[in-house]
Design a protein that fits this description.
homodimer, 276 residues, alpha/beta, Rossmann fold, 2 domains, 4-stranded parallel beta sheet, globular
C-alpha cells in the first residue's frame, strides 16, 4: 500500500482526543484515521510523567503496528510528557502533539504577551506549555492553572449550569478578575476536554480574552506536516472506513461519552476493544 | 511468624480507601496494616467490571505475596465487582469488602425500607449494593445513583462551598425532594471518597435521613471477622510500622491527597512505589 494512502494514527487517554479527531477530519476529509483511547488506564492527567510515558509508548507501538503513516498525540498530558520518547522509538514517523500548535497559536494571537494556560495537573506541573510559549515569545508571561474538576464536568456532560459556571469561576477568577494591566489577554485550553466547556469558560473570562483551542490549531499543523512530508492522501479509498475507533476498555462508555466529543453518534459496536 | 501477628492488607484504586484504613486503625490499634493504592490505574469507578477484576486480582496477589493475614477491599467498585474472583484465587484468605457491611448497616437502620445508594458508575451499574440490601431485607426499595463528579470534588479538596453544594444537590434533589411517602430515609455513601463530602451531603438530604458510611461499618465487620478466625493480633510489635503505604504511581500526589483521607499528614517518603 502506498504510504500516503495509509491511515493517520490519533491517540488520547480516553475520549477527549475525539475533539481533535473531529477537527482533523474536518480539515482533511480525504484521510483515514485510526483513533485509540486508552480507557483502561485513563486519566493520564493525574499520573506521573514516567507512567504516562510508559503508557504513551505502548499506545504508539500499537498504532505503528497497525500501519499508520503519521501519529497525532491528541492528549495534552501525553504531548507534554512523552513526545521525545515516542520520537526516539519511532524516529521515521511524522509525529505531532497538541502542545506546540497551541503554544504557537497563543504566541501569535496575544497582544500583551500575558497568556494563561489551563490543563490537567500533569500538563501544568510539567511546564511544557510554559516552555513552548516562552521559546516562541521571550516577552511572554505565562500563568498555568490545573483545573482537574473541569475534566470530570466535561465527562459527566455538565457543560452548562451552575456547577460548571461556579467551578470555572473558582479556577479562573484569581487569574482574570485582576487589574487590567496584569490580566491575561489569551487563554489556552490545554486539555482536550475543555472545548466542551467553552461557553462557560468564555463567560468567566469575558469577551476581550482570546481563547485558543488546540484541537483546531493541531488539525491545521497536522495538515501542514503531512503536506511537507508528501503524505497527504491522493484519493479516498471508498472501501476503508474513514474513522476506525479503538479502546482499551468499556466500548459502551466510550461510545456514550465519546459521541459528545466527536460531535456525532457513536455506537458501542463501532468501537473495537483491544489490549495493548 | 505467627499468623495473627502478620499485617492486614487493605487496598483501593487510589487514596479513597485511606478513609477505611483510618477507621480500621481506630477500631484495631494493635494491628499492623499494609495499604496499597493502585494509583497508576485509578480510577476504577469508570472502568468495566472485567478490567477492574483483572486489576484487583493483581493487587490481591501483591498483598498476599507480602504475607497479609486478611484482605480488606477498601474500594466500593472493586468490592462490587471482584470479591468472587479474589475468593476463588485465595480461598484460604479471610476477605471482606465494603459493600456487604454497608448493605448490612443500611438494612438495619432504615425504618421505611426506602434506601438510596450513591457510588461510582461501575458500582451503581453493577447493582451489588442493590442485591446485597434486598438479600437482607426483601421489602427494601433501593435507588442507586452514580455521582461521578463527587469523586473529583473530594480529590480536589473542594468539600465545602458552592460547587460542592450545587453538585451534591444536582445529584440528590431528584431522590430526596420528593413526596414524604416515597422519600428514602437512609443514604449509603457507596464510595470511599464520599465521607469527605459528608457535610454538604447531609445538608442536601436533611437531618431526618440516616447516612451510612461504609468505612465505619467495614472496620467493625473486619474486627468481627478476625475475632471469629482467631486472627486478632495478641500484642503490638513495636519494631514494625503500624501503617505501611504502597502506591503504583506518584508517591507525591498520593501523600498530598491521601493526607486528607487518612486524617493525618503523609510525607511522600512514607509511601513506597511498587509495580504490580
Amino acid at each position: 500500500m502506498q504510504t500516503s494512502s495509509r491511515p493517520i494514527g490519533v491517540f488520547d487517554s480516553g475520549v477527549g482526543g475525539l475533539s481533535v479527531l473531529a477537527a482533523l477530519h474536518a480539515q482533511m476529509p480525504h484521510e483515514q484515521f485510526i483513533y485509540l483511547g486508552d480507557t483502561a488506564r485513563l486519566p493520564y492527567g493525574t499520573k506521573s510523567a514516567q507512567t504516562v510515558e510508559r503508557y504513551a509508548l505502548q499506545i504508539a507501538d500499537a498504532l505503528v503496528a497497525r500501519g499508520v503513516k503519521a501519529l497525532v498525540v491528541a492528549c495534552n498530558t501525553a504531548s507534554a510528557t512523552s513526545l521525545p520518547a515516542i520520537r526516539q522509538r519511532h524516529a521515521q514517523l511524522p509525529l505531532i502533539g497538541v502542545v506546540e500548535p497551541g503554544a504557537q497559536a497563543a504566541s501569535a494571537v496575544s497582544r500583551s504577551g500575558r497568556i494563561a494556560v489551563i490543563g490537567t495537573e500533569a500538563t501544568v506541573s510539567g511546564g511544557a506549555y510554559q516552555r513552548a510559549i516562552v521559546a516562541r515569545r521571550a516577552d511572554a508571561i505565562v500563568t498555568a492553572v490545573a483545573c482537574q474538576l473541569l475534566v470530570a464536568l466535561a465527562e459527566e456532560g455538565w457543560t452548562e449550569g451552575v456547577v460548571a459556571r461556579e467551578a470555572t469561576l473558582t479556577y479562573l477568577s484569581p487569574l482574570f478578575h485582576t487589574p487590567q494591566a496584569s490580566r491575561p489577554d489569551t487563554l489556552v485550553l490545554g486539555c482536550t476536554h475543555f472545548p466542551m466547556l467553552r461557553s462557560v469558560i468564555g463567560q468567566a473570562v469575558g469577551p476581550q480574552v482570546e481563547i485558543v483551542d488546540s484541537a483546531l490549531t493541531t488539525a491545521h499543523a497536522t495538515h501542514q506536516m503531512l503536506q511537507r512530508e508528501g503524505l497527504l492522501s491522493q484519493q479516498t479509498d471508498a472501501a476503508a472506513p474513514t474513522l476506525r475507533l479503538l479502546a482499551t476498555d468499556s466500548t459502551a462508555r466510550f461510545a456514550a461519552i465519546g459521541s459528545r466529543f466527536l460531535g456525532r453518534a457513536i455506537a458501542a459496536s463501532d468501537v473495537e476493544l483491544i489490549d495493548v
